[in-house]
Write a structure and sequence with these properties.
Two copies of one chain form a homodimer. By secondary structure, chain A is α+β, with helices and mostly antiparallel strands. Helices cover 33% and strands 21% of the residues of chain A. The longest helix of chain A is centred in the middle third of the chain and has 28 residues, at 303-330. The radius of gyration of chain A is 25 Å and the shape is globular.
């Protein structure tokens, strides 16, 4: 059988081609239809990878994130692709590789649907320096991928106002008010979670996020949702009619944008808008590049959402405590593996009211597996758990009344002094952030050190951000907010009241151990004085930390108080929902340190 | 007598004129010759103010920083100038005022020597929008200011290598290496402290900083110092000859820059280079705008400078402790005022070896005077001190082996609970920064919250940065480093090993009280691990905090330990240099909390 990479070459009218792991909306999870990278690489090992493939007439290379640097290079070479490593020094990027391998005057093709406006500008600038040109309107995959899956047809449903707290027409009216500040006639939204948020609709096109493929254009006088009409039943049609949202077919976005008249101003986010969509906007329209207006509006949860989040986190906490009770009491008595842990936890979450599955693939990582930040157990690498060492479980659920994300590292038996110290440092870092006070107009980059300094004291760094925003029955990663070092995306945006986010410090020591603790918290008003409005973080997650992991001598008196107060609150909140044995167990687990 | 503002109008060939409080090097302290703003305003009250004056044919207005908002507006109006307030919302800036008051087609003049390249670009862009043009080559003051002081003729002297630790030729060689990264043939330095640092020369043109008016051009093959030749004696000439630095007259800078050939690359800092200098660079030379290379090189103190700083801070601490002993034991027994405090402290510093006066005008502020961040006592407002309330003293000295900056707030008798709480919060903020650990490549904006969060918890904000860099026998304010909130100038630059800086949180409550505590600290290597190099702050200042100001119940156990360890170190370090009474007093003052 002909290699797929050669099929591509047969159809390549230019000198090179680049394939990314994107969909046209830059979603975190992409549908099977858009998994061109995986299909082209032909390698099972690359499922879920993030990277790109570059192909010239003679050569091909594949870039992939560090999680996949130990894949079978020989197998990849046997299909004619060289392995490159993303984010490793001295390795050329895909664009640099294209520049090295093409001559001036030659042409590189991409599918402009899969690159953002910003990305295309960047690539074009780099290529043009060597007089290589870019053609951004080439979709080769469609003609060579014979059994390509269909675009997903997942059901679209209404997210009731008792959960989301605000009607779609009210949200659109807020957005139109902000559009006036720009004197803009149109606002194009391409990000699927923003569209779901504006319309109060949810879909089923992704595994873990309730999203649906669509575009939304909010004009001065009309709002149009571009979506596969087959997904919209009569009830939804009625709701959209009431909210004054028109429906057009998904692919009608191009012709609609083309008709925008001269001198009309169109707002769009160049990081979230794909190049083909951008390019189809009327030639003489005024394209105004901004951060999506919806970013901030969606991030500041309303009072109904906050109330629902609190309730949702109690349910998620019940599932977690039942899970921890089971694990601690069953370990050594029955066969438990990383994969059975995932299953157990999924089942416990499903028993909770309004649950709609997981918000991301569970990380269940035993011993040194936990040192890999995004470890995914499978039949091959699956460890059996014993009465020793630690298990890291990072998991979350989707509920109609919220999205959850929690990590606990669980002590199963003897651990080393270094492991106990590191557990305690991670807890100190979590408390450091949780106990930080700040004022309005402060940005994420200002807050990062509050937690991280506790790790720095012991010479430890983790390359993740400290906190990411979390959607409300939407994506588990939502930005803003972002708390991370200076330069981390979105960490230059203000942290505002009622933003909901994770707080997740960690220690990752390759081939040894990995510890992460993660609570969800929200920004609550603390005090208002002559100096302005001040905020604090209020914990949403209700689940104990493992006392066996804590070296109490490393905690100061304020930190001990924090742990004791938090544990008291966890016990008081959850115990009414637990059976006698679980309750007794939780009582002991929330003993004072 | 004709008002000066009218003299200016008589000589004004254009429609408006702008006068700033700058000198051609954007120095913090400017010489009498450049005090055009003060001269033109005719108001004694404005001595030391920061602002600008705008004049049209009919109107004139004066902008001034908040310290001066309560000056005699009527007196100012009587000479035909309206008072505007800098940094107050809804007040137009000087440029906005010009735009309001001129018609399209009219021309505004400025002296391009007194505006940086960046400032001129900004002003020009704003004016051009209303079709007003800018002429940046107008120096009216020279022709109307008949008794204008001369340019200062202060002596220039050598700063011995035993103090500064590195020869000028070695510094120039480091700079040339960095110039190579830019492929640049020339590097123009305009900032006086950078020139003093490169040449290891010091001058006497400012009151509190040992600087001299000059420009420095480092070329591939020659280094030229542009300076009033009368200031250079035979010895300095010899030293400069040995270090391969040529000397030209101060004003020769323009003709020198004009001769730079086509396509040569000239590096310069557009925030520090005045527009006239910039504009005189050869028309077809390639002007490359960067942060001054010297900023970083100067900021990372060498080992000799660090050693000297430590010794210098011991001497400064001795002076401070002698001062505190005197004050605490004399209050109520002899007449002490804010001004006599200044005098006493100056005399004590002068007694220390290698002292060369003050590094800035002492802030001696009693009771509510301390709520004004930059209060300056004079014969009019001078308070007499009593056995009650608090005195804030912010002061520093120049020594051949360092520059110092310290603030202590001193309890003289009964204070309120609020004052004691605020004192303790400021101390907690200082400890918060002092106890922060961080790693290489972290910037100032990342670190600010470590101290400030303690104030935020109680709804308090101060609008100053938390830490500024400090020169080595140079300016007391030196950037980088800067630790401040996101957006504060230079807070986006990395905090590096051996940077020396202040740590100065404060609380300012108008008409009530002001508390500031300020230590000097430097960045010391803490640990190096698989994750990189980690840093900590090591305290340089040796002077106790006032135990009477501390509410111990607000300190956690780590903070108490910090205070006790620091006080122990202060006692052990300083006591050998104190007399019996002072020693006994210091022993009590450094008791455990």
């Amino acid at each position: 059988m002909k290699k797929r990479i050669d099929l591509l070459r047969d159809n390549l009218e230019f000198d090179a081609y680049l394939i990314p792991t994107n969909d046209p909306h830059f979603s975190e999870e992409i549908s099977e239809y858009w998994k061109c990278f995986e299909w082209l690489s032909e390698l099972d090992e690359l499922v879920g990878a993030f990277g790109s493939i570059a192909v010239t007439k003679e050569k091909a290379a594949l870039w992939v994130d560090p999680r996949y640097h130990n894949i079978n290079e020989k197998e990849l070479e046997s299909i004619g692709i060289e392995l490159m490593k993303l984010r490793v020094e001295n390795e050329p990027t895909d664009v640099e590789w294209i520049i090295e391998n093409l001559d001036p005057g030659e042409v590189c093709g991409i599918n402009g649907k899969l690159y953002s406006v910003n990305q295309v500008k960047d690539i074009e600038e780099k290529l043009n320096k060597k007089n290589i040109s870019l053609n951004a309107e080439v979709d080769i995959l469609n003609s060579i991928w014979k059994d390509r899956p269909n675009m997903p047809k997942g059901e679209i449903f209404n997210h009731d106002i008792k959960y989301c707290g605000k009607s779609s027409s009210d949200k659109i009216s807020d957005i139109r008010n902000e559009m006036k500040n720009y004197n803009a006639e149109y606002y194009l939204i391409s990000a699927l979670n923003d569209i779901a948020w504006v319309t109060n609709l949810r879909g089923s096109d992704s595994n873990n996020s309730p999203l649906f493929y669509s575009y939304l254009v909010i004009g001065e006088f009309e709002t149009v949702l571009f979506v596969d009409n087959e997904k919209i039943d009569k009830d939804i049609k009625e709701i959209l009619f009431e909210e004054n949202i028109k429906i057009k077919e998904y692919d009608d976005i191009y012709s609609y944008l083309k008709k925008i008249k001269d001198n009309k101003k169109v707002l769009l986010d160049p990081k979230k808008t794909n190049y083909l969509t951008y390019n189809s906007i009327g030639k003489n329209a005024n394209k105004c590049e901004i951060n999506d207006i919806t970013l901030r509006l969606k991030a500041k949860k309303n009072e109904v959402e906050i109330k629902n989040f609190k309730n949702c986190l109690i349910k998620d906490g019940i599932a977690m405590v039942k899970f921890l009770y089971w694990l601690k009491n069953s370990i050594g008595k029955e066969k438990i593996t990383e994969l059975t842990v995932e299953e157990k936890l999924l089942n416990l979450r499903k028993q909770q009211p309004l649950n709609r599955g997981l918000s991301f693939d569970t990380v269940s990582a035993y011993k040194e597996h936990a040192a890999k930040c995004h470890y995914k157990a499978n039949e091959k690498n699956n460890y059996e758990l014993k009465k020793e060492g630690m298990l890291l479980v990072d998991s979350g659920g989707q509920y109609l009344d919220g999205t959850t994300d929690i990590t606990r590292t669980i002590v199963l038996g003897n651990i080393t002094d270094e492991e106990r110290r590191d557990y305690t440092l991670v807890l100190k870092a979590l408390i450091g952030t949780a106990n930080t006070y700040f004022r309005e107009s402060i940005v994420g980059a200002n807050l990062d050190i509050a937690g991280r300094s506790h790790l720095y004291k012991y010479g430890i760094e983790h390359l993740k951000g400290s906190c990411h925003g979390i959607g409300f029955y939407l994506s588990v990663h939502e930005f803003p907010p972002a708390i991370g070092l200076y330069g981390v995306p979105y960490s230059d945006m203000e942290i505002e009241e009622n933003m909901v986010m994770s707080n997740e410090p960690g220690v990752y020591k390759e081939d040894r151990h990995g510890i992460r603790l993660e609570n969800m918290q929200y920004v609550e008003k603390h005090i208002e004085t002559e100096y302005g409005k001040f905020y604090k973080f209020t914990q949403l997650t209700m689940c104990p930390f493992d006392l066996e992991g804590i070296d109490v001598s490393l905690l100061n008196d304020e930190e001990k108080k924090w742990v004791n107060d938090y544990h008291k609150q966890v016990f008081e909140t959850l115990s009414p929902y637990l059976d006698k044995n679980e309750k007794e167990w939780l009582f002991k687990e929330t003993n004072k340190v």
